[in-house]
Every structure is written in structure tokens, then in C-alpha cells.
Amino acid sequence: QVQLVQSGAEVKKPGASVEVSCKASGYTFTNYYIHWVRQAPGQGLEWLGSINPSGGRTRYAQKFQGRLILTSDTSTRTVNTSTSSVTMELSSLRYDDAAVYYCAKGSLLGYGAGSSYNPYDYWGQGTLVTVSS
Amino acid sequence: EVVLTQSPGTLSLSPGGRATLSCRASQSVDNRFLAWYQHKPGQPPRLLIYGASSRAAGIPDRFSGSGSGTDFALTITRLEPEDFAVYFCQQYVSSPITFGPGTKVDI
Question: What percent of chain A lies above the pLDDT cut of 90?
């Protein structure tokens, strides 16, 4: 079954960087975009950006340009194991970056294959990022 | 940027009741690119409706979506206890992808 498993909670100081990973399994990783969405306390959902694991093409919300980096890893470790993961790095953290960060798998229910403009059919469990001095 | 506005902010209903949630876009959105998600505390969001009116896999038929242009709606008939949650609309036709602020359906 499709699973997206995120790394654990993080506590960072203002100005620092945070990395959150999202490990995917149960589907062909390179066929679907991965998106990152966050929810600050008491707020709605906010889209940060997306990455095509096939080739690494990224698209970022303008608000996060220059602070957000998404990378994908599709390396094969051994004959029987491979890594399918995406990492989100957000730098120059501010207090208002404190939120639960989600990775989400793009479906093929919008523009379809090869496009980032599809709704999200599976989500990671969320990673709490706290920004505190 | 397409701004989505949802109303009401909170809807207080009883099990067995009917909920109608509204999502209004600041500019016309192609029907094919409007989705609704259900979000419960401590859980990730769950895709309910895509293409404005198509139910996602495994979603019961008491959930239905409608609308076009700038006005969309999510209707939940025969509310079950597990339906009390926050509901977000999303447009995925243009960047940045945007979500509405959510409607909370509570008892």
C-alpha cells in the first residue's frame, strides 16, 4: 500500500535551517510529484512547493523562493533495497514558520501524468517544526 | 494568485443532519481543478472530492461536490459522527496552489 513516512519533530532556533524527509513506498516513486504543505497553529493549509522525482524539477511558492529547497533521492543501495525519498529544507527560519509540515503525493486526477497540477491522494503523517530561541 | 474563501467558518449540526459548505474563488476556476479535503486533528488531510464533483476512491456517497466558475459547494448528507472535522477546498489549476481557510463542522 502507498505510504509516505516523514521524519520526526524538530526544534530550531530563529535563523537556523530545518530538514524534513519524506520516504515513499508502495508505488512507482518517479511517476508522481511530491508536494509540501504546512499548517501553522490555528491556520489553514499553505502550499510550499513541489518536486518531480523523475528529474528533480521543482516549483516553489514565490513566498518561499530563496529559502526552500526540495530534493529527491531515488538511489539504489543494493540489489534488494532502494531509497525513494524527498527532503524539504527551509532556511532562515522565523517564528511564523512554526507549523506541521506535510508531504503529499500528487495523483493523476487533474492535469494528469507529468504535471504538478493534480490533487493529493496520499499524505505523510506530518512533522511538527517548532521555532524557539 | 487564486484566493479561496470558505463559508461559514463553523457549522454546528447534529448526526443525521445535512451540511452545505461553500467555497468561493477570487477568479474563475476550471471545474476539473477544484478539490475538497477532510482534516481531523492529529491526522493528515484526506482527499474527498476532485474535479469539483468526483468522489475520490473509498469516499461514501453521502459526500457530493458541485459548482462551477467561482462558486463551489460540498454537501454532506446524513452526517455520521466521523464526519465532524474541518473541510478545505483547494484549487490546483495554477501556481501557487491555494487552499481555502476551512469550514469546521462540529456538533
Answer: 78
Question: How far apart, in whole angstroms, are the C-alpha atoms of residue B99 and residue B20?
Answer: 18
Is A109 part of the contact surface with chain B (CB cutoff 8 Å)?
A: yes
- Which residues of A fall within a CB distance of 8 Å from B37? 45, 120
A95: phi then psi, degrees, rounded to nearest 5? -60, -35
B34: distance to nearest CA of chain A, Å? 8
Could you tell me the CA-to-CA distances from B106 to A39, A107, B6, B70, B85 in Å, in that order? 20, 29, 16, 26, 7
Yes or no: say if B56 and B63 are a contact pair by the CB < 8 Å rule. no
Q: For residue A81, what pLDDT is reported?
A: 57
Q: CB distance from A9 to chain B under 8 Å?
A: no
Largest CA distance in chain B: 38
The answer to whether B96 faces chain A, any CB pair under 8 Å, is: yes
The pairing of beta strand A68-73 with beta strand A85-90: antiparallel
How close is the nearest chain B Cα to the Cα of A3, in Å?
Answer: 12
CA distance A76 to A44: 37
Which 3 state secondary structure label does DSSP give A78?
coil
Q: List pLDDT tens digits, range A56-103.
A: 999 999 999 999 999 998 865 555 556 799 999 999 999 999 999 999
Distance CA A104, CA A122 (A): 6
> Sorting pLDDT into bands at 50, 70 and 90, what band is A6?
very high
